[in-house]
């Protein structure tokens, strides 16, 4: 291993230095800058999150996600949004649902009449298989306790039971596949969730339905606006006994490897912006595994709030953030900016 100092001395001696070499030559013409750009953003790499709620009469604006709405599961507006996205080149969607009724088990999560199941059936009926429909698999929005699995009293306090929870994820996944989901996306961070879901899907005959796993999902404060939208904060305790510790980078590689062995088709790092090192580590460790990154609600709101102050250029920030996530190594980005970014990339508003 040569020291960078030795490198520099050698390069300078060979003539690779100023004035023969001028790095700025590649930065003069915007066309040349694009020609040699190492990272390219394309709307086809975005996944747009969608929210549906049982019993809604009309779309409801979300205060934590300005510009986004909750939709009635079988609404014209929802289909129009998907169709607008398709026109802009955004072809992948991730649906979250709020049920009309919550209980300990979160049984609405696997009901054929659940909000997400109905929304998927409606989208399929109206637009066929053109959009890629992914569905979040979790219990936190469906249970009265707000945890992603089943809490149980133990001598050491309340713990979230792992193995009963992943059984439920299997049931949820099969009901989403029945409704017409292309991919299911387990976000509960229970051990063995991918294996349990793969087994359940295969036994039900849904071998073609894929799994995008939230493999390295951190216990993060950046989920605040999302939990407000979904009313899915845990009613007691927190999620630190299942979501990852923000202090860990290499553990993400372990989580991703476990999921890959269990049969995940796409793995994910979440959040994205404060975890670019994790994205990079995972991509370099297992480059052949498709990697998604979730540019979460708090990250989105941060930019919106900064823009509201009038001191930053929103479009520049948005494209810079998305570019950083791609540059770090993400193949796909789940982002609330998807439509705005697709629009900006189409117009000449891009700073690049
Ligand atoms: C549910 C889930 C969460 C998010 C996606 N799925 C929140 C959480 O773990 O509390 C967060 C998404 C976002 O903040 O945009 N397990």
Automatic annotation (TrEMBL):
Residues involved in Zn(2+) binding: 138, 140, 148
Enzyme class: lyase
Reaction(s) catalysed by this chain's protein: 2 5-aminolevulinate = porphobilinogen + 2 H2O + H(+)
Residues annotated as catalytic: 217, 270
Sites where the protein binds 5-aminolevulinate 2: 297, 336
Residues involved in Mg(2+) binding: 255
Family the UniProt entry places it in: Belongs to the ALAD family.
Complex and partners: Homooctamer.
The protein's name: Delta-aminolevulinic acid dehydratase
Species lineage: Archaea, Thermoproteota, Thermoprotei, Desulfurococcales, Desulfurococcaceae
Gene: hemB
């Amino acid at each position: 291993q040569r020291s960078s100092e030795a490198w520099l001395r050698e390069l300078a001696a060979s003539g690779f230095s100023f004035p023969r070499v001028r790095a700025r030559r590649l930065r003069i013409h915007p066309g040349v800058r694009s020609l040699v750009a190492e990272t390219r953003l394309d709307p086809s790499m975005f996944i747009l999150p969608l929210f549906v709620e049982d019993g809604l009469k009309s779309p409801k604006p979300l205060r934590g996600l300005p510009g986004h709405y909750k939709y009635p599961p079988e609404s014209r507006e929802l289909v129009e949004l998907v169709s607008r996205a398709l026109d802009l080149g955004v072809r992948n969607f991730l649906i979250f649902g709020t049920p009309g009724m919550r209980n300990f088990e979160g049984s609405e999560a696997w009901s054929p009449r659940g909000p997400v199941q109905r929304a998927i059936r409606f989208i399929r009926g109206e637009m066929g298989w053109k959009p890629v429909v992914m569905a979040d698999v979790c219990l936190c929005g469906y249970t009265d306790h707000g945890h992603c699995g089943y809490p149980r009293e133990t001598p050491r306090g309340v713990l979230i039971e792992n193995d009963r929870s992943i059984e439920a994820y299997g049931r949820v996944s099969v009901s989403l596949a029945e409704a017409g989901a292309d991919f299911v996306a387990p976000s509960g961070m229970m051990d063995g969730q991918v294996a349990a879901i793969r087994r359940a899907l295969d036994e039900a005959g849904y071998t073609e339905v894929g799994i995008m796993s939230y493999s390295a999902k951190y216990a993060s404060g950046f989920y605040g606006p999302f939990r407000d939208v979904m009313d899915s904060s845990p009613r007691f305790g927190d999620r630190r006994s299942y979501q990852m510790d923000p202090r860990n980078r290499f553990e993400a590689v372990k989580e991703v490897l476990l999921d890959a062995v269990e049969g995940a088709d796409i793995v994910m790092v979440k959040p994205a912006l404060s975890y670019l090192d994790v994205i990079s580590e995972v991509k370099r460790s297992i480059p052949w595994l498709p990697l998604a990154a979730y540019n979460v609600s708090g990250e989105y709101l941060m930019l919106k709030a900064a823009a509201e102050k009038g001191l930053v250029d929103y479009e520049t920030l948005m494209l810079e953030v998305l570019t950083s996530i791609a540059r770090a190594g993400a193949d796909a980005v789940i982002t609330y900016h998807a439509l705005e970014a697709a629009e900006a990339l189409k117009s000449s508003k891009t700073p690049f």
